[in-house]
Amino acid sequence: MCPVEGSTDSCTNVSLNLISLSLFFPRAKVFRGKKILGDYDVRVEQAEFSEVNLISHSNGTCNVDMQVVRSGTKVVRSFRPDFVLVRQHAFSMAQNEDFRNLIIGLQYAGVPSVNSLDSIYNLCDKPWAVSISSKTH
After folding, report:
1. pLDDT tens-place string over residues 15-58
2. Computed from CA positions of residues 95, 98, 101, 106, in that sequence, does the dihedral angle turn out positive or negative?
3. Which cellular compartments is it found in (predicted)?
4. What is the pTM of this model?
5. Is residue 16 part of a domain?
6. Which residues pair with residue 53 across a beta bridge?
7. In total, how many domains does the chain have?
8. Quick check: 68 and 47 in contact, CB under 8 A?
């Protein structure tokens, strides 16, 4: 079974792309050389929200461009994510710190996530989250 839905390619050389949107922990080192089900390589791309550009398509896919600095050189990588792990707040009151559009784009494209994209978006507005949680008691 090929893990990439709708793929017509042979699944012998498929790599699963995990985007880790976080600040500190280098997840690429944890997954380096690892395989899923013994056959599928795991490729981890880690960046902050500010380094990510996302385009969602109406057919349920998205493309991600990441502009990261590695060893003093700006590197741009483009790919289609298979999975996302978000470990950074998507909204801050600081200038240019509103990345809710990226969460909406990932949700629109149907990209699976370790942590719910709904909860990430809802927690961007703290009073909203408190009002929702007060109704659950």
Report:
1. 456 666 655 566 667 777 777 777 777 788 888 888 899 999 98
2. positive
3. Synapse
4. 0.74
5. yes
6. 65
7. 1
8. yes
